[in-house]
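During the reporting period the student researcher (J.K.) took over the structure-prediction task from the postdoctoral fellow and processed the backlog of single-chain submissions. One of the processed entries is reproduced below for the supervisory committee.
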Amino acid sequence: MTVVPIDRSAVPGPGSVSDHDSMNSVLGKVRPILEAFTVDDDSLSLADLVRRTGVAKATVHRLCQELVVWGLLERAGCNYRLGLRLFEIGQRVHRQRILREVAQPYMEDLLLATRETIHFAIHDGLDVVYLEKILPHRGLSEESRVAGRLPLYCTATGKAILAFSPAALFGEVVRSGLKPFTRHTITSPGRLRGQLERIREQGVATEAEEVRLGYTSMAVPVFGREDVPAGALSITAPTYRVDATAHAGALRTAGLGISRALRSAL
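J.K. obtained the following structure tokens:
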């Protein structure tokens, strides 16, 4: 799983807000504190937060105390961890909640049909974010996580979304750099463009060991009322167990079902 760095250019700096606009100043410091926690962090010390945010120790300490009172952070001994209040607020995000609720029954059917790990992901920036994941006992448990991020260019869900998105998004992805995760990751813009053209023709995206050696994923885009993908549905399995024909058929059926349900729900 990639650790996505904080975009400090998006965080207000000393000269970017009015001295009288104290609320914006506070929010500009709170954001990097919350975003300092990655999916791999159970808790962080005050020193960790200071190092990751670049905010003064006294300020981080004061804001952490306030965030604990608000429930956005919790104390874990001498450390801090993200609070339950954040989870509660997150569950109120209407669009993502509807997507998960609509997709889940089809994901469960796909799990029963394939006995492999099933993901549902959406596009955010140059990444996919996993909204839901279900897996059998033998499934892939480490590389992907709900609310985790991976790049569009090297994941099956990302390629499925990228293939049916405006061409400008492809340009942004290429300009940001195609960094290899494994020796199989496609890092050539020309090869990636050719792969996306095939995905548009076939309706199914595949990545073979581009994120993790030994594992292959297949995905289909899911559409709501718009022409751009609302998300993507995928199957991930050890490469030796992938049945391309059977998995592609099962994915297409489930993807069409989710798309029909989304058009009614969104």
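The committee noted the following: The first strand starts at residue 73 and ends at 76.
J.K. will present the remaining backlog at the next meeting.
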